[in-house]
Here is the input.
Amino acid sequence: MKNIQALPIKNESKKVQAPEAHEGFLLALNDARLDERKNVSAVFAARLEAIAAHLVHNEVGGRGAVEVLRLEADRIRNESGEIH
Here is the structure.
């Protein structure tokens, strides 16, 4: 059996220049970041609405509302720590 050497294959396709490739990547990355910020904002707004509804429904006073907000802040901090 003969040893066959692989011949180099010429690539005739047009190469994308690095700045153009990076620009497209950065645009996609920024779009993803913006989308994520919108999602986080929507979740946070919904959570605030739920807390407000809870406070009104249970007729929670000022001190009780402060405690509920502190508990929520702790929950958010803990959740953030789990992500990082």
The chain has two helices and no strands. The chain has a mean pLDDT of 85. The radius of gyration is 27 Å.
